[in-house]
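Q: Could you fold this chain for me?
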Amino acid sequence: MFCFSLSDWLDNEVEIDWLVDFLEVCRTTPHLDKLLLTKRIGNWRSRLEEARECAAGRGTDAMGKLTAWIDAW
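A: Sure. Below is the predicted structure, expressed as structure tokens.
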């Protein structure tokens, strides 16, 4: 699966809620191969930490699974 050909999922301009939703789609579709390209590889840790904090704040079971999935990265 290739998406966002004209954008960057790790860009600081990407709203954290959108990134959480995107990561949840990635988590819940393990049957798809994903190619996550970025020009901002230096942002990966901080953006994933932000996404994890946001997901944890939502407090749902799915978000609990997402935080564990992000931790596994």
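A (continued): The radius of gyration is 12 Å.
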